[in-house]
Amino acid sequence: MWYLLSFLVGICVGSFLNVLIYRSTQEGLRVWSPPFSFCPNCKSKIAWYDNVPILSYLILKGRCRSCGWKIPLRYPIVELLGGVSFLLNFTVFKDDLFSFVLACLLSSSLIALSFVDLETMLIPDFLNFTVLGCSLVLAIKGDFLEHLISFGVIAGIFLVLKLVYREGLGSGDVILAMGVGLLLTPFSGILAVLTAAVSGILFATITNRKNLGLKLRIPFGPFLALGGYLFFLLERGTGWF
């Protein structure tokens, strides 16, 4: 029952994250204004029965009821990721409500910043600092010295990389790396960064091949978020690291 509830809450939060992602990438929009969902194409207000996470997308066959605009697949994907992440968080932290809430806030921020980065090549500061704040509190609840060492190591690596590759690495990536470093212990932190690097290289290779060898800029934030969250769950859920 609680597992199902955590998943359902997660997909509802994922629906809100879609609003956050879209409005964070548009000039003149705020998360809270207007206080209702609307179609990005025809601007018509979306009725509550067309705004049920995942289910409405399936019923409407991925199109706006008013104008027939094709709704990007990103919307149900983000909702599903929200549900899965909340379910995983509950599996790991079912005996610690405070850590569960922090983990949900953390995973939600990582999902949102990943999709904003994919669309804009930028990571909003408010999402990065939310990750940092959650990481700090979770670190305090664990072996803080180990997390502090990890923070120093990862932050040092990325600050050096930023100096060497000024155009290839954004400040947002460096701040996110600091959050990941603080979230993890040294060994899992290094593994998270390696996982991010390998997955990013693979993605870039596949993408460039599909674009006839054209060199494209690839955002690093989503891969760093994936590596950090994956090893966070492994570290807290299994105690392997």
Helix content: 55-70%
Task: Report the span from N to C terminus.
Answer: 31 Å
Number of helical stretches of at least 4 residues: 9
- The fraction of residues assigned to DSSP E strands is under 5%
Outline, from the CA principal axes?
A: globular
Number of E-state strands: 0
How is the biggest beta sheet arranged? Answer: none
Taken together, the total number of domains comes to: 2
Low-confidence stretches: none
Q: How much is the radius of gyration in Å?
A: 19 Å
SSE string: HHHHHHHHH
Mean pLDDT: 91
Coarse structural class: mainly alpha
Short recap of the structure:
With 241 residues, the chain is mostly helical. Helix content is 68%, strand content 0%.
How is the secondary structure organized here?
Blueprint: H1 2-24, H2 55-59, H3 74-93, H4 97-120, H5 125-140, H6 144-164, H7 171-183, H8 186-210, H9 221-238
Helix pairs in contact: 1-3, 1-4, 3-4, 4-5, 4-9, 5-7, 6-7, 6-8, 7-8, 7-9, 8-9
Verbal overview:
The protein is mostly helical and 241 residues long. It folds into two domains: 1-95, no CATH class; 122-241, no CATH class. The chain has nine helices and no strands. The chain has helices spanning 2-24, 55-59, 74-93, 97-120, 125-140, 144-164, 171-183, 186-210, 221-238. The longest helix has 25 residues, at 186-210. The chain starts with a helix and ends with a helix.
